[in-house]
UniProtKB/TrEMBL annotation:
Residues 29-111 form the IraD/Gp25-like domain. SUPFAM superfamilies: gpW/gp25-like (SSF160719). It comes from the Bacteria. Gene3D superfamilies: 3.10.450.40. This is IraD/Gp25-like domain-containing protein.
């Protein structure tokens, strides 16, 4: 799959081996980068797009509970449909809380637009 809509920068921003800014290999890598950027950006972090972001990084400061599980799933669902609905199709968003291990795990299964390949991105947070 080739990159659509011109040249893109990789996320996180980095310099490639040739000394130039790195670019994603294909649309699938670009969509994954966009997904990570959305999930890890906190709402209000971008000055000109204050609503942008999934806020997963701020989970470190939230008390882990069943209520948090629902909030995380709703926040991710809303962010993906609003900002990346045209770039990917979400197959599943799973938020699980393991009381014994005090661990919250977020899994997002998606397909880049125009692709039949399913991909999974996982995040995990342990309570202190």
């Amino acid at each position: 799959m080739t990159l659509s809509n011109g040249r893109h920068l990789a996320f996180p921003f980095r310099i490639g081996g040739d000394g130039r800014t790195a670019a994603p290999l294909d649309d699938g890598a670009q969509v994954r980068d966009e997904l990570l950027q959305l999930l890890l950006t906190s709402p209000g972090e971008r000055l000109f797009l204050p609503e942008f972001g999934g806020g997963v990084r701020k989970l470190v400061f939230e008390p882990a509970s069943e209520a948090l599980r629902g909030v995380v799933k709703a926040r991710i669902t809303n962010g993906l449909s609003r900002w990346l609905g045209h770039r990917l199709t979400v197959d599943m968003i799973d938020v699980t809380w393991d009381d014994a291990a005090a661990t919250l795990e977020v899994s997002v299964k998606y397909r880049p637009a125009g692709s039949a390949d399913s991909r999974v991105v996982k995040f995990q947070r342990r309570s202190n």
